[in-house]
Amino acid sequence: MAADPPRSPGDRFRQALTRIGEAGGREVTAAWALTRVIMFAILLLPWYPIDPVSGDTGLYREWAGQLVTGQFPVDDERWQYPPLAALVIVLPQLPGTVYGLWFMLAALLLDLLVLRLLLRVSRKAVGGQAMGAWSWVAGLFLLGPVCYFRIDLPVTAVAVCAMLVMARSRAFGALVAVGTLIKAWPAVLLLSLPRDRACVRAVTASALTGVGIVGLMSVFMDDLWAFVGGQGGRGIEIEAVAAMPFHVARHFGWAGSVEHRYGSWELLGPGVQVAGRLSMGLTLAGLALIGGIAWRRRPDAWNPAFGAEVALAATLIAVITSRVLSPQYMIWVIGVAAVCLSYRGARQGAVALLVLVAAGLTHLEFPVVWHAVRDGDPLATGIVAVRNLLLIGAAVVVVRGLWAGSRTGEEDKEVRPGRG
Predict the structure, then answer these.
(1) Is residue 240 a contact partner of residue 323, using CB atoms and an 8 Å limit?
(2) Domain annotation covers residue 193
(3) Contact 152, 181 (CB under 8 A)
(4) Which of 27, 35, 38, 341 would give a disulfide with 132, using CB separation of 3.0 to 4.6 Å?
């Protein structure tokens, strides 16, 4: 009998990933518990810079005290959130309790909820693989404790729920509206819909849900949209992709500066406003490209797995073209990538791996070498640059794959669930 040919490193790596993915829910849940204990233990290390990680909860607590009076903090330039974010910020404000602790525990429960949802959908996939759940567990672990001290985990949980009911267009649209009114980015998920009546139903449900929520909130609160006016004056945040040329220019006599504005450290100086406008233009152009690619797909060949890949591409485009790329934005990408891996026929394993590496580098740059990044240290900014290149590479891989498979969808053998 002839000996089996030696396997390539790529084959062995894929086989290892398959073994991990085939592990059951108990193994994934145990890994979740262990990694979360480690994450919170990290906060107790004397050398770990906890203040940058947990500092936003102090600001949330301050805002919560004002929000409960029916007023948005419109006089604070750091308020950059849609109106429903107020609910997320106010809920942990319980009398006689520590606000940051309750916020952290609520985020931890949402983390576990997302894990259980991903495991539930993975049981319906061929072979019951749980790669999406593993990706979620690993992604947040690599990103670090910052996940539990920002509102981005709650909004990502809403977005994940929306993507997991994508085949039920009305529920999907309603959840997208909720997420968008907490933090705007889930609106890009609407690009993942097919060009048929399901799209009309989802958009209609999203619009009606949004109008209903805003109408109800306007009865109790004023200045719901005051935050929009502050967006136009923002510069380029030092971790954004658009900031990279300016970091290089700082070492060649660029006359700009780094200042704390709108709740983040931004670059100000010659060329920054032009770069900001270019970034916004690239966001619109990139999302238009993704929408065009998605609509090349025949409606009868659409399935939730393809829709999830479109959502991943749109989220990556939104992140890499944004004027702001805070560490917690990685939670969005981790969540959407995890959903992609949870659907039958998922093809984004390489992209998920790039995202996981980017998450680890993000934790390294924030908070470990954060002050060096702010000061323009070449090594520290190099870490940010590599992270950004990985995200750009992930976006390119997803978009190329969508373009290659969007015309007919014949490669997908999955039977689509009904869309109601």
Answers:
(1) yes
(2) no
(3) no
(4) 341
